[in-house]
Amino acid sequence: MACAITERTERPFSSLRRWTIAAGMVLFLSPLALVPQLVGEVNMCGAVCPRLFMIIPSSGVLAGLRDKVAAEWFGASLVAVSLLVTFFLGRLWCGHLCPIGGASEYVSRLVPRRLRISFAFLAAPWFRYAYFAVFVAGVWLGIGAIGCKLCNYRIIPFLAGAPFVPGYRTYLLSSVGLAGLMTVVLTGFLADGGRAYCSLLCPVGALDGIVNALSAKLGWTAKTRTDPELCVGCGECVKACMVSALELDDECKSRRDQSSCMSCKECVKVCAHGAIRYGRS
């Protein structure tokens, strides 16, 4: 039985998520960049970076991980706390606080629908974890830290700070900066939903997705869940999902990929039949 779904629909931010994302941007991005400055940085590179410690250096896995966690201690701690919260409460960092994914989502909502790019055709879990493997092992594979060159945790803070810091403008206009900028524009600002980078290329999101999917199997953890008995197959949740984590199965029941779901609860808001809720099963 085929279940027809039209193009993705977009509704205003929920009031809570609008403000939590804005708070994340104020805390981490220029001109204030309060959190980076608290740990002696000016942007989200260096000790604040939540990704750099994952890259396996040529010195080896264990020794390299120890040294990199010590150097990027704040970013590693941020990831650890995020994964802990995800285990019990779902992906609240990704869906409600992340200033980078949030900034992309904000900008994408300003782009006319006809100009946006849908990445729903990609098998997100397969692509995500294939890229994650390349990101982690890039140095050993001989391609260097490719993730740093395309990193939206570098590009978006540099864009936010470009009016104030000439060095940021110089970097963004370099060949490496332009490659990263193009990646962020295509998979962030022009992506339908603004979260394709988050879903496909973010290594923190890859780890977060694994933890979310595994912990969702435990009934006592809080997740966004669908009750198939109440689902009428209208498809409104599928159209509202910004990361294509939902689809209708052969029986026209909403099916959720918890490794892709960002716990944003936009689907909860649009379900008129009470089939989707956030909480324990």
The overall pLDDT, averaged over residues, is 91
List the uncertain runs: none
Structural class: mainly alpha
The residue fraction in helices comes out at 40-55%
**Main β-sheet description:** 2 strands, antiparallel
What's the total number of strands? 4
Strand content: under 5%
Q: Order of strands across the widest beta sheet?
A: 1-4
Query: Count of helices?
Result: 15
* Structural Rg: 19 Å
CA distance, first residue to last residue = 28 Å
Provide the number of structural domains: 2
Q: Oligomer, anyone?
A: single chain
H/E order of the elements?
Answer: HHHHHHHHHHHHHEHEEHE
Write down the overall geometry: globular
Would you mind describing this structure in some detail?
It is a single chain. By secondary structure, the chain is mainly alpha-helical. The chain folds into 2 domains: 15-214, no CATH class; 222-279, Alpha-Beta Plaits (2-Layer Sandwich). The protein has helices spanning 15-28, 34-38, 61-71, 73-89, 92-97, 99-108, 124-137, 146-149, 152-161, 166-172, 175-189, 196-200, 203-216, 236-240, 266-270; strands at 223-226, 246-248, 254-256, 276-279. Strands 1-4 form a two-stranded antiparallel ribbon. A hairpin with a 5-residue loop joins strand 2 and strand 3. The longest helix has 17 residues, at 73-89. The model has no long low-confidence stretch (mean pLDDT 91).
How is the secondary structure organized here?
Elements: H1 15-28, H2 34-38, H3 61-71, H4 73-89, H5 92-97, H6 99-108, H7 124-137, H8 146-149, H9 152-161, H10 166-172, H11 175-189, H12 196-200, H13 203-216, E1 223-226, H14 236-240, E2 246-248, E3 254-256, H15 266-270, E4 276-279
Antiparallel strand pairs: 1-4, 2-3
